[in-house]
Amino acid sequence: MFASMIRAWMPPTLIALCGSIVAAWLLVSGRVVFGAVLLVVYLALAVAVSPLIFPRSVDSAEARRRAEEDGRPVVYWRPGCAYCMRLRVSLGRRARRAHWVNIWRDPDAAAIVREVNDGNETVPTVVLAGRPHTNPDPAWLREQLRSLV
After folding, report:
1. pTM for the complete prediction?
2. Which pLDDT tens digit goes with each residue over 119-147?
3. Which Pfam family, giving just one, matches this sequence (predicted)?
């Protein structure tokens, strides 16, 4: 669990650190405005690739149980995945209607994703009504979530 948390936070931490170093260099060299703007951009990017923008993850067993009860999709994702981020951002507030499972925190979830993707941990993988959909079109999932109101 601890190792997966470190792995999830490594990219945003490195982005924030690199941005801070570059911004500090610019500030010291007298380019204050450019340094400040660059720092804000790097920090925003760090937040965007962090686990913070995703709804709270549950484990795979709990997500499947909830999905059976309410018919909502299970979205398997991992931090730092650009396609997961694209899906999450495009869903907006509707993202909370799905059950999100971080495959880096749940070995069973990673195994499920590998099983439906020919041994690959391809995410996002969405399971809706028992059928897996690998890297689905965000508009399609938005429509599915809209119909679950």
Report:
1. 0.72
2. 999 999 999 999 999 999 999 999 999 88
3. Glutaredoxin
